[in-house]
Amino acid sequence: LVSASTAADGLDAGLDGWADRPGPLYQRLADALRDALDLGIPAGTALPAERQLALQLAISRTTVVAAYRILRAEGRLISRQGSGTRVAGPARPARARLATKARHDAATPRHATGRPARPASAVGFRSLIGRDEAAVDLATAGVGADGVLTAGLLADAQAELLRLAAGAVGYFPQGLPSLRRAIARHLTERGVATSEQQILVTNGAQQAIALLARRYASPGTTVAMENPTYAGALDAFAGAGARFVSFPAAEDGDPGPALQALVRRQRPRLLYLMPTFHNPTGLVATAETRRQLAALAAEHGLPLVEDNTLEPLAVGAPPPPPVAAFDSGGTVITIGSLSKVAWAGLRIAWIRAGPRLIAELMKVKAAEDLGSSVPSQVLGRAVLDDFPRISGLRSAQVCECLQRAARLLGEQLPAWRFRQPAGGHSLWLRLPGADASAFAATAMRHGVTVIPGPQLSPDGSFADHIRLQFLQPPGVLEAGIQRLAAAWADYTRAADRELEVIV
Ligand SMILES: Cc1ncc(COP(=O)(O)O)c(C=O)c1O
User: Fold this and answer.
1) What residues contact 127, with CB distance under 8 A and at least 6 apart?
2) pLDDT tens by residue, 79-95
3) Residue 306 pairs with which residues in a beta bridge?
4) How far is the CA of 229 from the centre of ligand 1 (A)?
5) I need a labelling partner for 464 at 20 to 30 A (CA). Which of 136, 139, 190, 227 fits?
């Protein structure tokens, strides 16, 4: 058994600077307590009573109650009437404790102010790396290439690949010329006149974002992004040390005086947004909004990155042309990808920008990988040559999956609220009165994964939202929503019980 003072020391040390963390107050406290537990406070140790900790930290008792509730839902704490709140689970040995702390310190970039930024790779890939094979994954957009990579398409690619393999060395740091020409043609058809010199082929849109983060972000720089946003972008920019300022995703009309004022006041180094089927809301910016965004970027000489990864996933009408079509100042940088329309396994995406920036980014990419895989690029070229068929197929699939998801949610989780997306692969669901992080932990225990809103937010907001990836095979969606409904029943029952105890 550990003495009370040792446990209190551990807790005190873990809570040091807790309020400087990102997110709502209760989330900051929960994160700090979790880190303190990770440092090795043994199972069974009593935590301070809610009222006592609230007094000690000069915060309201409700904040402590909410923080303890999150950790209880994660299985880290247990509460019993009469014996207070205690640490759950087996204790870790001291060596593991030190290793955990060292890892935590090394992985936590700090701003110039000394305030910890979001740890690199905190969220975006959690569902890929720590995948629980038994769980239904509604966190990752898992769409196979069935019907996309046909025998005809593969034969077309094979002919080009055999020709190349016979003659070329195989390093194409800017990208295979035939693929760059196909991408330039594709963008020109979408209303953005493009030459192959303006294209850099990347290993997925994620590498495109990471290269731009490397080029523009560093400790102390400010990146402006939508709230909520794509977790992989948060990870890439935070990994480069950037701090975030945020604005709401564009709906209708102009991007708003709020964004104009933000750019003027905060002078961000870069603006990152998803005007076409925003992830996670599925919103699409109008042509007028795009024109105004391009004008704002030109007026301030501000690099504006439009991530159009989800562009081929329209539910209804095709989206307006990319923001680059309205660019008058040469400041708009466009990202596109074949991951969602064809297959993420190809890892083929691109950056479209001015030839000078492309040459600069190419050097960074070449230092990293000397160029993308040629067989993948050849397949990418074949996909673009077959684009109308493939994008038609995907759009039909998106509509069908969305309808199915909306029906299942309406039947089984009628209290949840969402707005019909214009495209993309996710639903942005509001769970009235719920703590999404705690609910996601409950859902995980029920064998289904979703992403809680704060993980998709530059400032940790959207505490009552989750993202659900609806582009899934029918059986997966049905099983996933059924498990979510069971988790919701469990979660609301527990919340009601807790209310009774508090009252
Ligand atoms: C908006 C957005 N950008 C980038 C990516 C990463 O895509 P890729 O597989 O091309 O790296 C995703 C993946 O979901 C995404 O939704």
Assistant:
1) 137, 139, 140, 449, 451
2) 887 778 888 875 443 33
3) 273, 334
4) 11
5) 136
